[in-house]
Amino acid sequence: xxxxxxxxxxxxxxxxxxxxxxxxxxxxxxxxxxxxxxxxxxxxxxxxxxxxxxxxxxxxxxxxxxxxxxxxxxxxxxxxxxxxxxxxxxxxxxxxxxxxxxxxxxxxxxxxxxxxxxxxxxxxxxxxxxxxxxxxxxxxxxxxxxxxxxxxxxxxxxxxxxxxxxx
Length: 167
Description:
By secondary structure, the protein is α/β, with parallel strands linked by helices. It has eight helices and five strands; from the N terminus they run αααβαβαβαβαβα. It has two domains: 1-34, no CATH class; 37-162, Rossmann fold, CATH 3.40.50. It has helices at residues 2-8, 13-29, 41-51, 62-71, 93-104, 118-126, 141-147, 159-162; strands spanning 55-61, 80-84, 112-115, 130-134, 151-153. It has a three-stranded parallel beta sheet, with helices on one face. The protein has a two-stranded parallel sheet with strand order 1-2. Strand 1, helix 4 and strand 2 form a beta-alpha-beta unit. Helix 6 (118-126) runs parallel beside helix 7.
């Protein structure tokens, strides 16, 4: 977020802290509930959670991520929700994923990251996790391919074929 506000302010670092504070104040009360759940996501999460342990690894602060997922009744699908701290700790998704893997005592080579941006793919690759891209988010097929995603999905329903239920 600091990078975005620094760019938007024309490089004026003095404005960044205030901009982030104002953004977070509105987001904490209104913005986080303005999210929309993509069609098919609840069903895909229900299916995946039957056979896989799911975690959230997001650039959003953990406190907001938990509230969003609880509000939209999606938190129940996840074993844990990991985001950055409000002070910027673990804002780099590669670092956040390292932290998640350590905290959960997971081997990256037996995990998959499903994300919509190049940052998700970079975090996965930096941690020996297999990266998959989804095209219903903010990233593009070109961005995700260039970053190194091993496969792309056009709709949540496609996840079932790639991640079949365990026998």
